[in-house]
Specification:
By secondary structure, this protein is of the alpha/beta class. It is 25% helix and 24% strand. It has two domains: 60 residues, Spermidine Synthase, Chain: A, domain 2; 233 residues, 3-Layer(aba) Sandwich (Rossmann fold). The chain binds spermidine (SPD). One of its GO terms (cellular component) is cytosol.
């Protein structure tokens, strides 16, 4: 994808995380630990997937693998889907779990409804990343929404999700959705100022293709794309593992977003440390009080009938998501002034 100014987004190289995903199914089925060089399956326990990354050194959550369903290498990353024993099917990018069928609701519902329930009548929404379609599924519950753009860099993520996670990718069936395969930064550069009521950044971790989505120039572009009083919700990592990343995001967002800046979190058992957070920001304009939702999720079934009921989000958990443990509150509040 060529960005403005001629810079070319560099596809991810294997050496960057030091592992590859050439996993032999026989090794899994035979509980054979001969494939040690792969790093994923399974230098820790034979027949298990272990999530090893420099982003959470010294720990690795593991899931028992029943069957590997897909392995591929896109222009940007390694893509794998496996059937786990206890969490259903699992989507893995570059060795890191993106979603499981069992707990994806806790992430997709919160990253979507925390921002969309905080403003009245959101109409135009942009999703950056989120190629699995889960955020789209949640946006589609809001009947006020007239148009949803999604910009996902990796078409393989979209295709694999449609094939293996139909209950997640169901979001693509909504006729209000327009899919753009490309780089989120380049997409935002081309967006007229003040276009969106809400931008949701459903990124992977900040190593690899998502790195730019955690940096100040990106947040500046998001702020420009939002209308006055528009809202951003971006994946903002774990208070247990990544306070340094969260601090940087808070500092940058506080400088750029002149309305509210708040950190919220949710529990996702298969993400590192079992929790993940979101940074919610609003631009100068009509005030946004993220802690007190004003716009309930409606039971709109007209655009997309097969999405099923909400499993995780409700107005109580919305308010509770902004309650922080003391150690995190101290750091985040000191940086948000
Ligand atoms: N550590 C993994 C964080 C992944 C966040 N994005 C997940 C995408 C689900 N739609």
């Amino acid at each position: 994808m060529t960005e403005e100014g001629g810079a070319v987004k560099r596809p991810r190289e294997d050496e960057e995380n030091g592992v590859s995903v050439s996993v032999d199914m026989e090794d899994i089925n035979n509980n054979n630990n001969s494939n040690k060089e792969t790093g994923y399956i399974s230098s820790v326990i034979p027949g298990w997937f272990s999530e090893i990354s420099p982003m959470w050194p010294g720990e690795a959550h593991s899931l028992k693998v029943e069957k590997i369903l897909f392995q591929g290498k896109s222009e940007y990353q390694n893509v794998m889907v496996f059937q786990s024993s206890t969490y259903g099917k699992v989507l893995v990018l570059d060795g890191v779990i993106q979603l499981t069928e069992r707990d994806e609701c806790a992430y997709q519902e919160m990253i979507t409804h925390l921002p969309l329930c905080s403003i009245p009548n959101p109409k135009k929404v942009l999703v950056i990343g989120g190629g699995d379609g889960g955020v789209l599924r949640e946006v589609s519950r809001h009947s006020s929404v007239e148009h949803v753009d999604i910009c996902e860099i990796d078409k393989m993520v979209v295709d694999v999700s449609k094939q293996f996670f139909p209950d997640v990718a169901v979001g693509y069936e909504d006729p209000r959705v327009a899919l753009h395969i490309g780089d989120g930064v380049a997409f935002l550069k081309a967006v007229p100022a003040g276009t969106y009521d809400a931008v949701i950044v459903d990124s992977s971790d900040p190593i690899g293709p998502a790195q730019e989505l955690f940096e100040k120039p990106f947040f500046e572009l998001v702020a420009k794309a939002l209308r006055p009083g528009g809202v951003l919700c971006t994946q903002a990592e774990s208070i247990w593992l990544h306070m340094h990343i969260i601090e940087d995001i808070v500092v940058n967002c506080r400088q750029i977003f002149k309305g509210s800046v708040n950190y919220a979190w949710t529990t996702v058992p298969t993400y590192p440390s079992g929790v993940i957070g979101f940074m919610l920001c609003s631009t100068e304009g009509p005030a946004v009080d993220f802690k007190h939702p004003v716009n309930p999720v409606d039971a709109d079934e007209s655009h997309c009938k097969s999405k099923g009921p909400l499993k995780f989000y409700n107005k109580e958990i919305h308010a509770a998501a902004f309650c922080l443990p003391s150690f995190a509150k101290k750091v985040i509040e000191s940086k948000s002034k």
